[in-house]
Design brief:
With about 375 residues, the protein is of the alpha+beta class. It has 3 domains: about 1-120; about 130-315, Beta Barrel (OB fold (Dihydrolipoamide Acetyltransferase, E2P)), CATH 2.40.50; about 320-375, no CATH class. It contains 6 helices and 19 strands. The chain has helices spanning about 1-45, 65-85, 90-120, 180-190, 195-200, 365-375, and strands at about 45-50, 55, 120-125, 130-150, 155-160, 170, 175-180, 210-215, 220-225, 230, 235-250, 265, 270-280, 290-295, 305-320, 325-330, 330-335, 335-345, 350-360. A hairpin with a 4-residue loop joins β18 and β19 (about 350-360). It starts with a helix and ends with a helix.
Amino acid sequence: MKNCIKGLKNYIKTVRFLISNIKKMCTLFHLLAINCRFFATTSSLVAYRPYSGMLAPRFSSRPPAYAKTASAGLKNWLISIANRLFQCPLNKRIILYFIIGLVFIPSLNMFSQNILISSSTFEEKRIENKKMLITADISGITQAYEEYDIKANFDGQIISIKPELFDVIESSEAIIRVVTGEVAALLKTATDEKEKDDILKRWDGMFKYTDIKSPTNGIVIKRYVKPNDFVNKGDRILRIAKKMRVIAKNKNKLFIQPQIGLNGIINRAFNKYKITLTNYIPNEDYYYTLLFDFDEIPDIKIGERVEGVMMMANRQNTRVVSSKDVINYNGKKYLIIQFEPGLITEDETEVLGFTLNYLSIKSSPSQNDISNQKQQ
């Protein structure tokens, strides 16, 4: 009975000890795991090459000063933990060994995974000089604007209107023929077209038709009257649009912002029409509403859907890297680029210049880590 009571007391003490120390031990070995990870990525896996100014997977070189410091820190941690363990009574020491095993084995697993990931992280590449052409496919609807009306200069009758709706007209072209009211009254007495022609022949030379021209090139977007209608001075006859544009959207992603004045081409079956970007409105990421002016009035109907290409940029000789090698961090873009070192001390290194060599991160886990850092 006494032995049972004594065993129960020891069990209760053990449980209390575990409860009071497990939180401390977990925190301790969590820090140990972090230190192991830091030690692995600095001293064991990453080496400094003093003559090239690069960080690379360790193969043959001395580690930098901070790697030695990390190694010494890990060593002191292990010594301190060992001293604490050996100062504990045997029964408590066994329990602590069990806790250490549970916590330290996953830490070692994490440590070994870090080694596997980091040992093949980088690939050395070079910045290239090459031509770079960026285009974007666009699709949109044509629209007329800058409109004005052609009006009657006197009271009379419309004899003919040459252009049809949506026809393209030129400023040198006579598009409307009108006669005065007196002549219109004579023509009104005719019972048919033959009699009207006879009247015109009989009075030929005594009056003239008045032809109306458009002041500018444009496109007919509305007809207010038809031939043989009578008009008063100031009545509207036609509405003309000086310009045509395309209200379009880009079909593929744009990673650079459009610039006013960019040119493009609208492709038709037998013609190509040049367009110029006059304005744009950002929509969702990488996509825009784009307003293009036709350089010339095209032979395209208003409201018709058209397809084309926008020229975003054209560099004949520029420095280029793969977009996959660019590191995005806090809205900025970085490259792990090689530099030429000058003076070197334990704490500082002089930067003399940069080369065209850089490191590409080729293992997907590392890229995920970078993306997570960006989101945080």
